Amino acid sequence: MSGIARRSAPIRALVVDDSMLMRAMIRDALQAEGDITCIGSAKDTVEARRMIKVLNPDVLTLDVEMPGMNGIDFLEKIMTLRPMPVVMVSSLTESGTDTTLAALGTGAVDAVAKPAGKTGPDFANNLRHAVRTAACANIRKHRPAAPAAQVTAKKLPPAPAQNFARRLIAIGASTGGVSAIAQFLRGLQPPLPPMVITQHMPPDYTQRFAKRLDGEFAFDIAEARHGEVLTNNMIRIAPGDRHLKIALSGGAIITQLSDDDPVSGHRPSVDTLLGSIPAELSAKAIGIMLTGMGRDGANGLLEMRKAGAITFGQSEASCVVYGMPRAARAKGAVMHELDIDQLASQVMQAARNSPKPMQTNPRPNGAASRHIPPQIG
């Protein structure tokens, strides 16, 4: 179960897919270990809408590409009118990948790739894990995002290097991270130091994810390549199934990719990224832990804080899953804990050397932003 506590009652799942065979395969995979029960299946969104009202499922599995109203349109209606945990089950086609990423940005908790033929243990295990995670998720009503203010300036030239000499922003995220990363970037204004991101995501998705972000924001955003020199206003995302590391060479910040074994159960791993940042770079770096299941990144963020970095964690109230930020906070790795809609402004202050960031910025409900004292021992 990898960190997901079993509930006293089975998770009640509703399956939506236009293929009778796939509905049966999903049902059998979900019910294989006894803690999930399939309370019904629907062949289209009309039938699904009726069954949701009658059965009130804990989690919905939703096909991406269906006749009539497709999965993303139906998801938008669900998240606007009746928010609930949704796991997208998609084919690994180019259009299916793009639609799945749009779904994750709209509020789906996770996405699982459909098998090309018969279901195997990987599909069944991934599906059950996604549904278990979704059952624990904090789901909020979807609000269409305002356009990013900086898009009109796309693409900016790199800011002068002396502005952010040896500065770096490093981010880790998992479940809920697709939406959280986009929301965070939407609040940023160039110029900024280079930024590196490890988001737990399959290899087929990371390049498309980077391309989608690059099309929305003024920053230079791409999947990371081995040996690339990072300059200001660049954002690089760890490729799926490869670790992203950071090195210094002659004063330049360099990306490194590796196929080393998974760390904290993941490749790419947030612990690998954050832990690889040289101490002399961490002293002026910013580390950020966003929403995600598990503990990946807690040790790496602690190493950054010990080396002098400013570290942030996403608040429980704004996380889809408050796992990785909670683990980092418990270790004393988080200096400042913030709602996602506050994070960008405070990171910009920290990156631009504003003194004592975070001390006067109120939360939306009027409470002071939370500063967490060191617990490093």
Notable features of this structure?
12 helices, 16 strands, 377 residues, alpha/beta, single chain, five-stranded parallel beta sheet, 33% helix
Describe what is shown at a glance:
The protein contains 12 helices and 16 strands.
Q: Tally the helices: what do you get?
A: 12
* Helix-strand topology string: EHEHEHEHEHEHEHEEEEEHHEHEHEHE
Largest sheet features: 8 strands, mixed
Spatial extent as radius of gyration: 21 Å
- N- and C-termini, Cα separation: 30 Å
Number of strands: 16
| Widest sheet, order of strands | 8-10-7-6-13-14-15-16
pLDDT < 50 stretches: 148-153, 354-368
Structural class: alpha/beta
Strand-residue fraction?
15-25%
* Overall morphology: elongated
What is the helix fraction of residues, given as a range? 25-40%
Report the average pLDDT across residues.
87
What does this protein look like?
The chain has 377 residues and is an alpha/beta fold. It has helices at 20-30, 45-55, 71-81, 94-106, 121-135, 177-186, 203-216, 270-276, 279-282, 298-306, 324-330, 340-351, and strands at 11-16, 36-42, 59-63, 86-90, 110-113, 169-173, 195-199, 220-223, 229-230, 234-237, 243-249, 252-258, 286-289, 310-314, 336-338, 370-371. Strands 8-10-7-6-13-14-15-16 form an 8-stranded mixed β-sheet, with helices on both faces. Strands 2-1-3-4-5 form a 5-stranded parallel β-sheet, sandwiched between helices. α3 (71-81) links the parallel β3 and β4 (86-90). Mean pLDDT is 87; it is low at 148-153 and 354-368.
